[in-house]
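Sequence and fold
=================
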Amino acid sequence: MRKEVIIVALGGNALIDKKYGKDIKFQHKTIRKAIKNISGLFGKYKIIITFGNGFQVGELLLQNEIAKGRVPVSPLDILDAETQGEIGYLIEQSIMNELQRKRLKIPVIAVLTQVLVDKRDKAFKKPSKPIGSFYTLKEAAKLVQKGYDLVEDSGRGYRRVVPSPMPIKIIEDFLIKKLVNYAIVIAAGGGGIPVYKRVGKLIGAEAVVDKDLASSCLARSVDADTLLILTGVNQVSLNYGKIDQRDLRKLSINEAETYLEEKHFPKGSMGPKIMAAIDFLKNGGKKVIITSPALAEKALRGDAGTLITK
């Protein structure tokens, strides 16, 4: 019997401890917990795990700027690569330890992944991807005076924003499609390292590609059956956080598009997830599930989360 191919997209909010997020040991602890929550999928499905890096790449960029003049400053594509390795290592190790605990002999591999973008994408002139820590209004005002771009992020505070072009193709998609037949694959971390082509050569682009949109791009390339988006909430909601909040258990593409147009889903949080779901389903995908890591297995059984279908 053919095993389903599932892209498990671990959101940045699902990998950061809300209270101790800046401490790497707590990040590691949170990653271990997330992997344990999805470990019931191992062996039952062919798994490709993607992940976000918004917090980590923002902090690394800040470190670069603070150390400017003392050490060389790295461009964003290099920082994307660094966080892809950092988080990929923690996820890979956590999976290996969980497989050992379950006595499952399944190989695990993390693939350093590049994603093709268009250098002419308008996103390069209009930064929109929130990264790094949250700031108060007072702190944000000081940063704006220094020339930084900031936006208010879903009522949680202000964050820096960087260019986030649309992903066109995962460069290593053919290899990933082969590898998933033999191993649990970790790929497209942080949305992948953005690159563009110039005279046939690949060149790094200073940007951070949205992890969910890159996951959809990868899912289409490897003919995945399901896109499982794991984030910091249990399901998609309308009027999130308000007195009239309404949780959604099922959505059609048409409903998702309508709610997106009505601006129910903020750009910095649920918006890209809904866009990724629509893109995947319109290009051959069977279903998309959005939920938290703790409810991943229940959601796949249809007992939790939000199911989006054609």
Observations:
- DSSP finds nine helices and 17 strands in the chain.
- The two ends are 25 Å apart (CA to CA).
- The CA atoms of residues 43 and 104 lie 8 Å apart.
- The chain has one domain: 7-31+47-208+224-309.
